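User: When convenient, might I ask for sequence and structure tokens for a protein?

AI:
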Amino acid sequence: MRKGLFWLNDEQWAQIKPHLPTNQTGPARDDDRRIISGIIHMLQCGARWRDCPQDYGPYTTIYNRFNRWAKRGHWQAIFEALARCGRDGVILSIDSTSIKAHRSASGGKGGSMNRRSAVRAVGGPRKSTR
């Protein structure tokens, strides 16, 4: 395990594991602990799913698991269960703020700019009285 990555510890995993969906069909599911650690890491750092470190597994698996569980309400059920058995006096904040801006919104000055005519800039005679 590399440093700087998020990994669920044993206590956290013990609280989450009983609330995971078990009615899965098809091929064997990837390690839930690793996938959930990857989901939490990606939500904490705010990066694109495609940039997920390989230590957590394929980014498509991590994104698909997050997306499917969100649509089926599994995350809501997990959060509610964890809130019921949570510690008193602990304040948590979840912020999902995102603001879309044009890709060049951060560059250049805004507003109107008065430009001098090329003739005035060179010092030539004015053609009007303004």
Summary: The chain is about 40% helix and 0% strand.
